[in-house]
Amino acid sequence: MRFKDKRNDFSGGLLKRFSFKSKIIIFCILSLVVAVIAYKEAINNRENNKSKIEKINNTNTNSQTFIKADNQEKNNEEELKKLKEEENKKLENRYQESVKAFGNKKYADAINIANSIISENENFFKAYNIKGIALCYSNNYNEGMKNIDKSLELKSDFGYARFNKALAYELYGHYDESLQWYDKNLEIENYIWSYYGKASIYGRRGDVENTIKYLKIAVDMSPDIKEIAREEEDFNPVKNSKEFRDLIK
């Protein structure tokens, strides 16, 4: 208690030594110092806040730039995909024209259309196939086979090309090879004309058992095959057999 009293006495005594005017001056100085400190603190806070805002803005700007770039890339990819789809659609339509021309025995037209497709897209495998079989039917077996093989090189599991290779072999009397490629076609699709093609080869050979075996499959798939088989010269060697007559009646 005594120490506390002495401290209070000291403070009081010290203040009593200054005049009222001096006290005012001291108070003003202290107030100014406090004000300066407060101002500097406010300035520092404002600068810190400004720096934080700039960092946030920069982050947002970078994020927006990245998002815009990513969206632009996606838009470019979608646009490119759309263009490719449109191009393939046009080529597919022209390919169907060449198939129709071949079906109508307009082999030169089929070849010309296929050539125009290949000139625009050398990887359009379907065009080589239809060109190849049209060439084979135009008495150009070697070039025809080259084109069919090119089609299979581009797409080995293209069923129509496998079938046409078998058909080309059959057309030129290579029956064993033809049977092999009809089987290759049947490995990837249950195609009625491959069964019919095998039946016609066995028919030429007079093999009644195998002729009936494969022709029956074709007939079961489509009864209209009976009418075609009745007029098919390939079946002449077996037409008088009871099994053949019973199948197509």
TrEMBL record:
This is Tetratricopeptide repeat protein. The keyword Mitochondrion does not apply. The chain crosses the membrane at residues 20-39. Keywords: Coiled coil, Membrane, Transmembrane, Transmembrane helix. The keyword Coiled coil applies. InterPro entries: TPR-like_helical_dom_sf (IPR011990), TPR_rpt (IPR019734). Residues 39-101 form a coiled coil.
